[in-house]
Amino acid sequence: xxxxxxxxxxxxxxxxxxxxxxxxxxxxxxxxxxxxxxxxxxxxxxxxxxxxxxxxxxxxxxxxxxxxxxxxxxxxxxxxxxxxxxxxxxxxxxxxxxxxxxxxxxxxxxxxxxxxxxxxxxxxxxxxxxxxxxxxxxxxxxxxxxxxxxxxxxxxxxxxxxxxxxxxxxxxxxxxxxxxxxxxxxxxxxxxxxxxxxxxxxxxxxxxxxxxxxxxxxxxxxxxxxxxxxxxxxxxxxxxxxxxxxxxxxxxxxxxxxxxxxxxxxxxxxxxxxxxxxxxxxxxxx
Length: 286
What we know:
transmembrane; transmembrane helix; ABC transporter involved in vitamin B12 uptake, BtuC; Metal ABC transporter permease; transport; mainly alpha
């Protein structure tokens, strides 16, 4: 097991008094890892017009957690496994159906929500345990969770380095991508699986209700500020990381005492308003 102490020490160097507590250092480290992952995937979610897809995955957390609690499986394991299954299911049906993507995702969204609520309705204790996942609580993250985040961060970095341009081709035109010998199905399934994992980890931070915002808002802000695909990627990372750091720091202040996840999203939305004003001043009507 890698020692995370050096990382905590780096986090403690940030100029915030609240970071002297270990649980706050863990929360900040988790957000610094999670925010750029959500932002990088969010750029592709916006490009592929898959915001509804991420919403369906996040709401499948209800069913995943409920199944885990009922069958005595760690919800932190049951939730991502169920999310990956839902993501692969949506992608498989989407690739082999004449129905529109929104229709297919809508069916899966309805199914996982109904399934989760049906399970929860059978046991009041399960319903109480789901509150944490509904609203998110990054302050309860453990060292074990952070190690999983580090592993996912490494995998996602390799994925973006290797597949970013391929995903751009697929987003523009899958037929053209195939003509350039890109294995479209492989990249679509890999993207769906990794997106499901990022969404499920994001549920811990901001909850089911706000997880889509963590993906979409930085990417939308970056689209207002950037003029190239590469610029959009880097702007999205900058917006997400600064929003995560500022959101956690603000939520810990005595005068604020707000939910961390909601505060992170509010800071990101502030970024979006600034970017929208900038785009308007620039005369950008994209």
